[in-house]
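Annex B. Sample input.
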Amino acid sequence: MPLGQTMRPSSDLLPMRCLRCQGTVERGTAPVRIERNGYRLAWEAVPAWICRRCELSYFEPQEVETIQRALQAMRTLPNP
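Annex B, continued. Sample output.
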């Protein structure tokens, strides 16, 4: 999520345009896949704001925190 956009609007459209293409941004889900140190982690449907035009995903702070915690946990795993 771009800085300064921390509150959830009441509609399914975000009151901003995509930073890449200026398209309309709406609620949806996006896949997240991470590979680190020989391990793979994947979520198929993370809540996000998705650009209707270029499909760039913007994540809210709570989703970013969850992904960062998973990355931190992956750092503690031994190399396969």
